[in-house]
Design goal:
Length: 376
């Protein structure tokens, strides 16, 4: 029986100089708060392009460039205050997943002055400022969905904020903004996007539409990852047409993964990976990919999981076993953790809802076992 349930409210502009096509979106208000990190948005040219367009439109703008990796709830709260003080009436997020996720939270805090930090997760409020998002990496797909993964400072845990109005009004995707990314960063973000695709494809919440996007993204990403694996210099010449084509493919695939998880959410590699990122400094994409082999092995024990994995693997012209080997290998995660540390890492994420979002639902004991086998 067909399941065509689907919701995708984000207006998307893709391709070279996409910002020109999206010019009208940047006049949604009179004053923009531009949310970025310290360097990448300026280094890749995206910040300059946005400022130039805003100036042409006569739209005022204020820069808030305090977003770091794994955006902190307290910094987003500060950003909301900065937006109100500047008189901003819309938010522009530029960067990788951290600034894009932060832009969504800042939009909520900006529009709701009485909202306390932790109250954002209740989403019991109506107003948010309009959001425009420009990704400068090909990984999170945050521009396509309403998820905002935030780090709660006081508890050192990650938690997801989402709201019916935390979708971007528009997403502006120009692959040229990824040309300055290093090989390692490109690899990690592509692994994150691949995890989105495979975890969405297996999800019990998946529909024919979400599976179509997940499969589209997974094929492009698996090909791209293998190209990078077999030729680490594949991204060396940013002016090469083949490199530009690969960058465009990765960005399109990342967006597709973001669309897919908008319907389904993610599976257990994501929460298990959060602790590696927060406490061991492993980049998010690599942290998730480290668990993909285990994700495949456990889901092969389930009839539905095995069937979907075989279908996915055939489309990728490979096998589930090869995917289970290739993705963790590309992550390059090699850690040695003692038993107490492994238990701490698991305890911090054991309550996540992602565990139920897969054909095979792992137990707490299985979480510990996975950590014990991977990080002895």
């Amino acid at each position: 029986m067909l399941n065509l349930d689907f919701y995708m409210p984000v207006r998307t502009y893709f391709g070279e100089n996409a910002i020109v096509k999206a010019k009208g979106e940047l006049s949604v208000g009179k004053h923009a708060l531009i949310v970025t990190g310290k360097r990448s948005a300026k280094l890749c040219g995206a910040y300059d392009d946005v400022v130039k367009m805003l100036d042409e439109l006569g739209v005022a703008h204020t820069l808030f460039d305090k977003i770091g990796e794994n955006p902190k709830l307290s910094v987003c709260f500060e950003g909301g205050k900065a937006a109100r003080e500047a008189g901003a009436d819309f938010i522009i997020g530029i960067g990788g997943g951290s600034p894009l996720d932060a832009a969504k939270a800042i939009s909520a805090f900006a529009a709701n002055e009485t909202l306390e930090q932790d109250d954002i997760f209740d989403a019991a409020f109506a107003d948010m400022l309009p959001i425009i998002l420009l990704p400068t990496t090909s990984g999170t797909g945050s521009e396509a969905n309403n998820y905002s993964v935030l780090t709660i400072d006081s508890r050192e845990v990650k938690k997801t904020f989402k709201h019916p109005r935390s979708y971007a009004r528009a997403a502006i995707l120009d692959p040229k903004y990824t040309y300055t990314l290093s090989y390692d960063y490109t690899l990690s973000t592509a692994l994150d996007a691949f995890c989105h695709c495979i975890e969405s494809y297996l999800s019990p919440k998946s529909t024919d539409i979400s599976m179509m996007f997940a499969l589209y993204g997974a094929k492009k990403l698996y090909n791209g990852l293998n190209a990078m694996k077999n030729s680490p210099e594949a991204l060396a010449n940013a002016d090469d047409d083949a490199v530009k084509s690969l960058r465009a493919e990765l960005m399109a695939a990342s967006f597709a993964g973001g669309v897919a998880i908008n319907t389904t959410g993610t599976g257990f590699p994501h929460p298990l990976g959060y602790s590696l990122t927060l406490y061991s400094g492993i980049p998010h994409g690599k942290a998730c990919a480290a668990f993909t082999g285990e994700y495949i092995k456990y889901n092969m024990k389930n009839e539905t999981g095995a069937s979907r994995l075989y279908t996915l693997a055939r489309a990728l012209e490979t096998t589930p076993e090869e995917i289970a080997h290739t993705i963790p290998e590309l992550s390059g995660v090699t850690l040695s953790l003692d038993a107490d540390t492994r238990a701490l890492y698991v305890d911090r994420v054991k309550g996540a809802g992602n565990y139920a979002n897969s054909p095979y639902i792992i137990s707490y004991e299985e979480m510990l076992d996975i950590y014990s086998r991977l990080f002895v």
